[in-house]
Amino acid sequence: MLERMSFCSAVGIYRIGSIRQVSVPRLLRVTSPSVRNMAQTVKLNNGYEFPVLGLGTYKSNPGEAEQIVKDAIDIGYRHIDCAKFYENEKEVGAGIRAKIAEGVIKREDIFVTSKLWNTYHAPHMVVPTCKRTLSDLGLDYVNLYLIHWPHAFKEGDVFLPKDSSGNIIYSDVDYVDTWKEMEECVKQGLTKSIGLSNFNSQQIQRGLDIATIKPVVNQVECHPYLNQTKLIEFCREKGIQITAYSPFAGPTSIAPLHKGESPEPLKDPKIKELADKYNKTVAQVILKYLVQLGVVPIPKSSNKKRLLENIDIFDFELRPEDVSVMNSLNRNNRICDFIQVKEHKHYPFNIEY
Ligand SMILES: NC(=O)c1ccc[n+]([C@@H]2O[C@H](COP(=O)([O-])OP(=O)(O)OC[C@H]3O[C@@H](n4cnc5c(N)ncnc54)[C@H](OP(=O)(O)O)[C@@H]3O)[C@@H](O)[C@H]2O)c1
Description:
The protein has helices at about 35, 65-75, 90-100, 125-135, 175-185, 200-210, 230-240, 270-280, 280-295, 305-310, 320-330, and strands spanning about 1-10, 10-20, 40-45, 50, 55, 80, 110-115, 140-145, 190-195, 215-220, 240-245, 295. Helix 2 packs across helix 3 and helix 3 crosses helix 4 (about 125-135). The protein is built from eleven helices and twelve strands. Strand 9, helix 6 (about 200-210) and strand 10 (about 215-220) form a beta-alpha-beta unit. The chain has one domain (about 1-345): NADP-dependent oxidoreductase domain (TIM Barrel). By secondary structure, it is an alpha/beta fold. The site of NADP nicotinamide-adenine-dinucleotide phosphate has 29 residues, from helix 10.
């Protein structure tokens, strides 16, 4: 069934192009209608369908990640966000493959994203690193491969290479040269689509200027305290979908590297008021708000009850006045700022968006 949905908000009207419902897994047929509807997707600029909610896997520890992914797939998640940096792709892949082997899903039913870490930007490293991720996941292809950050670090398997003073060692590699090899990953069938993460508008434009295969996604921090409306609008004009990481401004992000205070939207009294009004939880109101902004949230949870809670958001709609309340909470408070590399020539957060 094809349906078009548009969402109003005080910051403008965002239309999620063509939202589509895909087949409902057997297990979900006995669950609530709202959970069934989580099979909605949005169409990317290359025609592939992208489920509007995904599962984050950062800090899903080896030892728990496989079971979390299995639980998530049983519950109905069809979009898993991974990265080499998370050091758990073997376990995440084992969870996905187990559910394919059990017949719960087919490979084509699930959207898997991975990311190229900063120490592999050198053009000759891109294809081999993507192949290593595929080998770790135990999959023939990923659906989406992202450049994790625009700034490159000294090449190698040490993710945060440091000099004797403890400063991260940079690399000169320009992400536009990395992009050409990301395109090669598509040509070799290693990934269906390619995209960006943590890129600002100028960096996106530089990439678009040389791209022969367009990025489909820019994955960025996005939550009620950093709602990214300007970047969302910029990307919408370019046909690029925003994925919202750290949708709860989650304590699992790389915030420990940041000395400032972490915002805590999950404890926000105004969001709690809305949650009571809609008979939903604060987490559900936040996720629904993000979906209504036109972005694709990827909350992480290692708890089965919260996995269920986080996808049970498709049976209500925030009214425009309540979207305005949510918009009013924005304070451009970035927690995942990677501030220690702010002098890097490709550091993304020295301009407004
Ligand atoms: N591209 C990037 O640079 C980048 C950066 C950061 C994150 N990411 C991606 O985005 C994903 C999500 O971001 P994140 O992990 O930083 O943070 P997040 O999803 O905003 O928050 C996760 C935290 O919230 C808790 N939580 C989850 N559901 C909850 C609920 N319903 N009620 C209360 N607490 C809840 C989790 O605890 P429990 O596990 O105990 O439920 C966990 O502590 C990551 O896993 C990763 O895949 C990407």
